[in-house]
Design goal:
mainly alpha, elongated, about 120 residues, 5 helices, about 70% helix
């Protein structure tokens, strides 16, 4: 009798340990077309400005070379975020990367006058 009670207790305990079903993750909030355009434009304008400045101020030449990667980074992050294969958390991180890159472009553009750029 105690053996049967032990088996029943183990079965009840095992049923209580059943894995809870997780709610499906929410899809990432997509960027509006206007926000995508602003972010893309911010980095494109930075590249144009810093490279124009590099023609006059030699110390900015390295920044010009490095700046070309920023618009590409925005495009890669957007492609990742908008891919149907991307999970919601990955898409959200990719959108955050777009915003972070655009912020960097805007901040670097604002610093150009202090480097001697018109």
């Amino acid at each position: 009798m105690t053996r049967a009670a032990l088996i029943v207790a183990l079965l009840v305990a095992a049923a209580g340990c059943k894995k809870k079903e997780e709610a499906p993750p929410k899809p990432a909030q997509p960027m509006s077309a206007a926000e995508i355009q602003r972010n893309t434009d911010a980095c494109t304008q930075y590249v144009t400005a810093v490279c124009a400045c590099a023609e006059k101020v030699a110390t900015v030449a390295d920044q010009c070379k490095l700046a070309h990667a920023l618009p590409e980074a925005v495009q890669i992050s957007l492609a990742t975020a908008q891919s149907p294969d991307s999970k919601p958390d990955i898409a959200a991180q990719a959108y955050a990367a777009v915003r972070k890159t655009a912020k960097e472009c805007i901040e670097q553009t604002a610093k150009l006058p202090s480097l001697g750029c018109p």
